[in-house]
Amino acid sequence: MSRRSGPTPARLSRELIVATALEQIDASGVPDLSMRSLALALDVEAMSLYHYVHGREDLLEGVSSLLMGGLTSRLDPGLAEHWQGFLQTTAHEVRRIAMDHPKAFPLVATRHPAAPWLRPPLRSIEVVDTFLSTLIGHGFSDEQAVNAYRSFTSFLLGQLLLESAVRGAETGPPEEPLDEGGASIPEHDGRVDLADAEQVVRLRPLLSQDRSDEEFEVSLEALLDRLSKELSQ
């Protein structure tokens, strides 16, 4: 591979690799991302990337973490004094991620490997734990907080995946897996410590319940009620 001016192997890091991967996804989408294209952009040999990422899922998990990183710190403490304000600011922050990175947003709309009972697109264990803790702190019961989490994530997922698709996102799985270059390093995907996520761990039984049939009917009825009100005005 020809050498160009740019980052040298000594400057290589997981953070740089993941950030470059996000740039490539923003430009051409997840299906076109490969270890070879990353290596070319970073001016290194493809196999050197495996000292920092352990395969396809690890790399894409890193991109998802980068997108969601710092979300809780951007939530306005003033708005969080009221649960409605907390939900509003959370929704707008997640939408900002979707609008800034529409081709990468579907990665956020997947299940977390360390906590597959969490629903997209919040996905970040820290964000979900903050969400549940905030609502419970405002008087929600465990079941009410989890129900709010379900309804909120369903709304965000449907709305923001649609907006991302309009902006060129691939909303289905890529047809070909990301080329891992024949690396022999085993993947260490999703090894995340849940010890600090007290509410996520405590409420796992409720979060794991499949209530999709009920949620669909409730959402459909809410839509029909809203359309009926509009029609009667």
Distance between the termini: 67 Å
Shape estimate? globular
- Tally of separate helices: 10
Structural class: mainly alpha
Major beta sheet summary: none
- What is the CATH top level name of one domain? Mainly Alpha
Summarize the helix and strand pattern as letters. Answer: HHHHHHHHHH
Number of strands: 0
Q: Give the overall pLDDT as a whole number.
A: 80
* CATH structural fold name of one domain: Tetracycline Repressor, domain 2
Strand content: under 5%
Helix fraction bin: 40-55%
Rg result: 20 Å
CATH architecture of one domain: Orthogonal Bundle
Throw out a few tags for this protein.
233 residues; Tetracycline Repressor, domain 2; single chain; disordered N terminus
Walk me through this protein's architecture:
With 233 residues, the chain is mostly helical. The chain has a domain at 71-232: Tetracycline Repressor, domain 2, CATH 1.10.357. Helices cover 54% and strands 0% of the residues. The chain is built from ten helices and no strands. Helix 1 packs across helix 3 (56-68) and helix 6 packs across helix 7 (142-166).
